[in-house]
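Structure (tokenized):
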């Protein structure tokens, strides 16, 4: 197969990335990863390649992952039916055991292994490790769904210092040893804030925030917090996008410089967002 890029074009691409490489070298970038970009094996490989590449050019990458579809699969195998209240998973004692097993076990370790294969050095941990995420009951009706009460970033900082990529599953515990399922976006916002991250990338299954939900060309590339509030009043930001945007605003409040809602279905969207002028998705920033 003939190579579509000449060597000169490749060199040109690399030099254009140089200012961005300089800008993010040594900085902390938190990536929240889940949804369909995780189900499609080819996309998963590309996400891991992007993370390994960023790590190799000196970016301190922290990967926070969910695994809803995998949890549903396992519940099905064990004959349990997923139940939701207002879009949140009802989590009884048996379900939280499944969540812990799938997220902190299977999903977490498979991502760690994949990163290692792509040339990165990764270590997996859950919100329970080192007391990273402490939680309490969010709402009695939901059972073991946690509301974050404290973040201790030290375990993650220690791994970054030793030049590892921390891969974090979002299960947490309280002081009594109860285990909680934590919303991945919320966990990402709080962890990124506690780490003083330069950027938070929220990978999702949509193009970003669209002015017209049926028209991918109506992508809004940048938004301030007050513009986001306005779009919500107008109903442009609605449904499942509301909690996503709320998490972006939470992250900004916690001290993250800016947050991007990124289309996880686009190959290499992470590199496009961080290392090119174009970017990919919608960036939300403080006013």
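Design, position by position:
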């Amino acid at each position: 197969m003939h190579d579509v890029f000449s060597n000169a074009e490749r060199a040109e691409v690399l030099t254009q990335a140089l200012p961005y490489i300089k800008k993010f070298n040594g900085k902390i970038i938190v990536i929240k990863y889940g949804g369909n970009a995780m189900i499609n094996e080819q996309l998963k490989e590309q996400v891991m390649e992007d993370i390994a590449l960023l790590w190799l050019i000196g970016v301190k990458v922290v990967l926070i992952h969910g695994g809803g579809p995998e949890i549903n699969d396992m519940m099905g195998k064990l004959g349990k039916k997923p139940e939701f209240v207002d879009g949140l998973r009802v989590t009884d004692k048996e379900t939280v055991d499944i969540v812990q097993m799938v997220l902190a076990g299977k999903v977490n370790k498979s991502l760690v292994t994949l990163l290692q294969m792509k040339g990165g050095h990764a270590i997996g941990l859950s919100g329970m490790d080192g007391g990273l995420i402490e939680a309490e009951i969010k709402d009695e009706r939901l059972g073991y769904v946690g509301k974050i009460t404290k973040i201790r970033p030290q375990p993650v900082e220690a791994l970054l210092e030793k030049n590892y990529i921390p891969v974090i599953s979002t299960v947490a515990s309280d002081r009594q040893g109860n285990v909680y399922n934590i919303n991945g976006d919320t966990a990402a916002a709080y962890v990124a804030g506690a780490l003083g991250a330069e950027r938070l990338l929220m990978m999702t299954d949509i193009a970003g925030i669209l002015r017209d939900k049926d028209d991918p060309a109506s992508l809004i590339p940048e938004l301030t917090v007050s513009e986001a509030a306005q779009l919500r009043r107008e109903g442009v930001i609605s449904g499942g996008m509301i909690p996503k945007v709320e998490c972006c605003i939470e992250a900004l409040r916690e001290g993250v410089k800016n947050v991007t809602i990124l289309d996880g279905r686009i190959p290499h969207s992470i590199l496009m967002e961080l290392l090119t002028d174009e970017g990919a998705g919608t960036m939300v920033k403080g006013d």
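Reviewer-requested clarification: The longest strand covers residues 28-33. Residues 273 and 279 are 4 Å apart (CA to CA).
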